[in-house]
Amino acid sequence: MPKDVAVIGVGQSAFVRGYQGSIRELAFEAFREAMQDAAMSVADIGASVVCSAPEYDKQRSPSGLIAEYLGLNPQPTFVIENVCSSSTSGVRVAYSLIKSGLHDVVAVIGFQKMSEITSAESQERMGRGADIIWESPFGTMMPAYYAMHARAHFTQYGSTEKDLALIRVKSSKYGVLNNKAVYRKEVALEQALDAGVVSSPLKVFDCCANADGASCVIMANADKAKGISNQPVWVMGLGAATAPMNLAGRDALSGLNCARLAAQQAYEMAGVRPRDIDVAEVHDCFTIAELMAYENLGFAEPGKGVELIRNGETYIDGKIPVNVDGGLLSKGHPIGATGGSQIRTIVLQLRGEAGAIQVPGAELGLVHNIGGVGIYGNVIILGR
């Protein structure tokens, strides 16, 4: 795989509940950190891709507002929306813009200020992420959708509530070490198992939290990257796939086919196999989502993902460290910013700059970012 496009700067705001500023100020926090990381000026940015789920935004067409505030006029700006996978979709678009030769350097800015609306309004909008004619009217919300996935996995493979709780225990261990995470408390196994039920079998600690936050990924072609960065991180493989919006249209609920197909594409493009990955960030909006990701990404055979968490293989010192920044479960999940945050974590890992959560010698990292209830799947492989 030729090294044609690199990530040369990454940034992220703290993920918080109830951010006091505006969306433009929130985006600026991540953009400033990424620009400082890349040691660039706004004049160096050829285009921007702004990523959010607009049903949470009071500002219509936020890309224009944010580009203006960040000093990115008159460069072109674009808006991308693939719900929770928006910013990795933005990275795919930026990669294409750079590979085509239209732009040398592109900034991908993801954000979400979910506190702009109430929790009830947020749940209603999440419900409308399903088919509004054939599925949403039944009132199914995100926890219930993933609870169906959990029940299917339990039934087919014999996984248990304890296996899901073990995933949250790992998440909380590393969330404590992440100063940008919204939830920085350790969760004991008994605490996770005894928590209140949200949608059986999922309990409170099986679910990620809404949050306000922003992320930024600056990408460049090979010539620019080598001229600007001492440690460019290369985009080695990209995969993307979709699935029927209605769950009734899917073959099985014990995994996400869009993630499996996206992973196959990314591995093929990068010329690597699952066992070559040194560290991974997966979309753990619910504990069952991380368990399914182990299997969809090929880290374990279907039904064998539980062995990874039971044996501690997804911890920093395990066979395949996963979500050692706390994942969505501890960091929080500001929809449009999530994928960019995952990429930031992997970039820091590959540069050896991840501090207390550094995976020793990490050279190849993977990002798995899902939109909706397995509707959109993005997998990105990054290399040192």
Automatic annotation (TrEMBL):
The EC number(s) this enzyme carries: 2.3.1.176
EC class: transferase
Record-annotated Thiolase C-terminal domain positions: 241-384
Domain of life: Bacteria
Domain Thiolase N-terminal, chain residue ranges per copy: 21-187
CDD domains the record matches: SCP-x_thiolase
GO molecular function, one term: lipid binding
Gene3D superfamilies linked: 3.40.47.10
SUPFAM superfamilies: Thiolase-like
Family annotation (Pfam families): Thiolase_C_1, Thiolase_N
Protein name: propanoyl-CoA C-acyltransferase
Biological classification of the source: Bacteria, Bacillati, Bacillota, Clostridia, Eubacteriales
